Recover the amino acids of this structure.
C-alpha cells in the first residue's frame, strides 16, 4: 500500500444493526468504556513484552511501559495512549474493522502455542466487543497507532454509525506517540459528558484500573503542574498476586484500608491461591461488625487479570461469602458469557468449593490452635458462620465442630462439650435463652442446678439451630421457658389443689393448660411454658406473614405445689375469694411477663392490680 493512501471501509456487514445494540445493551454501565480502552492499552504493552521475551522483537526498549489517560474537557476528548505493540494498517483494519475477531485470541494462538487461555499470558482481551464500548460515550474515535516493527503509522477514524476512514502513513503520529504504540482519542458526546469531569473520570479509573498491570498516569490538560511528581494512579503489583508467605500483617491491613476505605481493622484474612486448573488468587477479609445489621452486606470485588469486573457477583461467589470483604482474581472466568452460564459452570462451582474449603480450614485452625482469640472474635464472625452453615451444607459439614456457643453465665462451649456435660441430666437437649433479662428467672433456676444455658439472642441464631437439629439426629434446642426441666422438679409428691386449678383455668383462658408440679425452687409459685415447636412456628409467622392474626400458643401453666403461696391461695379461696382471685391474676401476669407476652392493655391492668395488692398492706 502506498504512503498516505486513504482507505475507506465499513466495519463488517451488519454493523448498522450491531452498533445500536452495543451502545444500548451490551454493557449495563457506560463507564465500562474506561475499563475496555485502558485494558486494551495494557494488553498492548503485555504483548510487546511477550514478543521481546520470546526474541521476536529485537532492539526494543521496554524499560518504561506506560499508559496515559488525558482529559481535555474543552476539546471534549479523553485520550488513552500506550507505548505497547502498536498496529500496522492491516492489523488496524483487521482488529478494529471486524467486530468479534478478537485480536487477543489471534495473538494468543500465535504466540502461546496450544494454550488458548489468555490467563497464562496475562493478556486481558476476552471481554468481547471491548473496543466498541467507546461508542457508548463517543460520536467519533480516532486511533493513531504505530507498530513496534516500524511500519508506517496509521490514523483510523470511526464514527458512531460504524464507518471508518484510515490513513496509512500518518505523518502527525509523533504528536501523539512516543516512538511506538497507540493513542485512542475518544470524542465524547452528550451521553458521555459526565466523564469530562475530572472527578467522574478518575472515579471510573479508580474503580476499574486501580490494579491493572501497567503503570497508568492521569493528566488533565487544564492542570498546570504537569509531569512533576508524577505518580501512577494504579498499583501494578497488588497484594493478592504476592506469595502469602511474603506478605506482612501490616500489608494486609493497609491493602484493606486502601481498597475498602474502612478505617476499622479487619479481624483476619485468608489469602487464596489456587493453582492449575482453577488458577485464581484473592484475599478475603473478615470485617469487624459493630451493629447487628450493619455489615451483613460485604464487598467481594471480582477481577480478571487485575482488571476490575464487578462487585459481589452472586454467580461466582457463594452468597454467604458476600458478607466478607475481599478481592478475587479469576483469569479463567469466561466473562463474556451470560450469567446463567456462570451459574451452571463447573469451573465456577469449583471456585466456590475451593473458597468454602479454605474459609472453613482457616476457621478450624483458629479454633484448634488459638481458641482464646477465636472466642474473642466469635461475636463478629458468628453471623457469617451461621449463615454459611445454613446456606451451604458442605460448609456446615466442614466447620460445625468449630462452632461455639456463648453461655449466659459467660464463656463459650461447643455443641459436643455441652452435650457431654449434659449427658446425665438432660441428654441431647440444649437449653437456651434469647432474652437474658426477661428469662432471668428460668436461667437462674437452671444454673442453680449446674446446667448451662446458652445465649441465642440474634435473629439468625434461632434459624441456625434448625440447621443443627436437622443435621444432628436427636439433638433438640429448648428455650428455658419452653418446659419445666426435670432437674427442676423435686421428688416430693405433687399435691393438687382442684379449686386453685379451676381459678387459674378461669383466669388463663382456654389456650392455657393448667397443671401441678413440685419444684425444688419453692419461691416460685408457677411457671408458664410455651412449647418450643409452637413458639418457633409463631416466630416464623410473625416474620413471613406479619398481618395474620396471632394464633393462641399452646402453653402450660405449672403450679408449684411445693410453694407455700399455692397452699395459702387455696385457703384464701374459702376465706376471701375476691382477694384470692386478685393474687392469682397477679401471679399469672408475672408469669406472662417472663414470656414478654403481655398486651399493652394487660400491662395496664397488671400495674393497676399490683398497686391494689400493695395497697392491701
Ligand atoms: P479484545 O481486547 O477482546 O481482543 P477489543 O475489542 O477490546 O477486543 O480489541 C480488539 C483488538 O484491537 C485487540 O485484540 C487488539 O488487537 C486491537 N487493539 C485494541 N486496542 C489496542 C491498542 N491500544 N494497541 C494495540 N492493539 C489494540
Ligand atoms: Mg479488549
Amino acid at each position: 500500500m502506498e504512503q498516505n493512501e486513504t482507505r475507506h471501509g465499513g466495519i463488517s456487514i451488519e454493523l448498522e444493526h450491531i452498533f445500536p445494540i452495543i451502545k444500548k445493551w451490551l454493557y449495563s454501565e457506560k463507564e465500562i468504556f474506561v475499563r475496555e480502552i485502558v485494558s486494551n492499552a495494557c494488553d498492548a504493552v503485555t504483548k510487546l513484552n511477550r514478543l521481546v521475551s520470546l526474541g521476536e522483537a529485537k532492539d526494543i526498549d521496554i524499560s518504561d511501559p506506560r499508559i496515559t489517560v488525558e482529559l481535555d474537557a474543552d476539546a471534549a476528548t479523553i485520550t488513552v495512549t500506550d507505548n505497547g505493540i502498536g498496529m500496522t494498517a492491516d492489523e488496524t483494519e483487521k482488529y478494529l474493522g471486524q467486530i468479534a475477531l478478537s485480536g487477543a485470541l489471534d495473538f494468543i494462538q500465535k504466540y502461546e502455542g496450544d494454550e488458548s487461555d489468555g490467563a497464562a499470558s496475562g493478556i486481558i482481551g476476552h471481554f468481547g466487543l471491548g473496543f466498541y464500548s467507546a461508542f457508548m460515550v463517543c460520536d467519533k474515535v480516532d486511533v493513531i497507532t504505530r507498530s513496534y516493527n516500524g511500519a508506517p503509522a496509521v490514523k483510523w477514524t470511526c464514527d458512531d454509525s460504524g464507518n471508518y476512514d484510515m490513513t496509512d502513513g500518518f505523518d502527525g503520529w509523533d504528536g501523539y506517540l512516543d516512538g511506538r504504540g497507540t493513542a485512542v482519542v475518544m470524542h465524547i458526546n452528550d451521553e458521555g459528558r459526565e466523564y469530562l469531569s475530572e472527578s467522574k473520570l478518575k472515579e471510573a479509573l479508580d474503580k476499574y484500573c486501580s490494579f491493572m498491570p501497567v503503570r497508568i498516569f492521569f493528566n488533565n490538560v487544564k492542570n498546570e503542574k504537569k509531569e512533576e511528581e508524577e505518580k501512577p494512579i494504579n498499583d501494578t503489583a497488588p497484594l493478592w498476586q504476592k506469595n502469602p508467605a511474603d506478605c506482612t500483617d501490616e500489608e494486609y491491613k493497609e491493602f484493606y484500608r486502601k481498597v475498602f476505605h474502612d478505617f476499622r481493622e479487619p479481624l483476619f484474612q485468608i489469602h487464596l491461591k489456587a493453582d492449575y486448573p482453577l488458577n485464581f488468587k484473592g484475599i478475603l477479609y473478615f470485617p469487624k461488625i459493630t451493629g447487628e445489621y450493619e455489615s451483613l452486606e460485604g464487598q467481594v470485588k471480582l477481577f480478571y487479570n487485575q482488571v476490575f469486573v464487578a462487585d459481589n457477583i452472586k454467580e461466582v461467589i457463594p452468597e454467604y461469602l458476600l458478607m466478607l470483604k475481599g478481592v478475587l482474581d479469576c483469569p479463567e472466568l469466561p466473562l463474556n458469557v451470560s450469567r446463567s452460564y456462570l451459574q451452571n459452570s463447573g469451573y465456577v462451582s469449583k471456585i466456590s468449593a475451593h473458597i468454602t474449603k479454605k474459609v472453613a480450614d482457616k476457621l478450624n485452625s483458629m479454633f484448634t490452635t488459638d481458641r482464646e482469640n477465636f472466642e474473642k472474635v466469635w461475636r463478629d464472625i458468628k453471623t457469617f458462620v451461621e449463615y454459611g452453615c445454613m446456606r451451604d451444607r458442605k460448609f456446615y459439614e466442614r466447620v460445625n465442630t468449630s462452632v461455639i456457643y456463648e453461655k449466659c453465665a459467660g464463656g463459650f462451649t461447643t455443641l459436643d462439650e455441652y452435650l457431654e456435660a449434659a449427658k446425665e441430666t438432660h441428654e441431647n437437649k440444649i437449653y437456651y435463652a434469647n432474652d437474658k433479662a426477661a428469662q432471668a428467672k428460668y436461667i437462674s433456676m437452671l444454673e442453680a442446678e449446674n446446667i448451662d444455658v446458652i445465649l441465642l439472642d440474634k435473629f439468625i441464631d434461632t434459624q441456625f439451630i434448625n440447621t443443627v437439629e436437622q443435621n444432628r439426629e436427636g439433638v433438640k434446642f429448648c428455650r428455658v421457658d419452653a418446659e419445666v426441666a426435670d432437674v427442676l422438679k423435686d421428688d416430693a409428691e405433687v399435691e393438687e389443689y382442684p379449686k386453685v386449678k379451676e381459678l387459674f383455668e378461669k383466669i388463663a383462658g382456654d389456650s392455657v393448660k393448667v397443671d401441678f408440679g413440685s419444684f425444688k425452687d419453692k419461691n416460685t409459685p408457677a411457671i408458664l411454658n410455651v412449647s418450643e415447636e409452637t413458639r418457633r412456628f409463631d416466630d416464623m409467622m410473625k416474620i413471613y406473614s406479619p398481618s395474620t392474626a396471632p394464633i393462641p400458643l399452646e402453653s402450660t401453666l405449672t403450679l408449684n405445689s411445693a410453694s407455700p403461696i399455692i397452699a395459702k391461695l387455696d385457703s384464701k379461696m374459702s376465706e376471701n375469694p375476691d382477694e384470692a382471685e386478685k393474687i392469682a391474676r397477679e401471679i399469672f401476669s408475672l408469669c406472662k411477663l417472663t414470656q414478654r407476652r403481655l398486651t399493652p392493655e394487660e400491662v395496664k391492668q397488671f400495674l393497676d392490680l399490683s398497686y391494689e395488692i400493695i395497697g392491701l398492706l
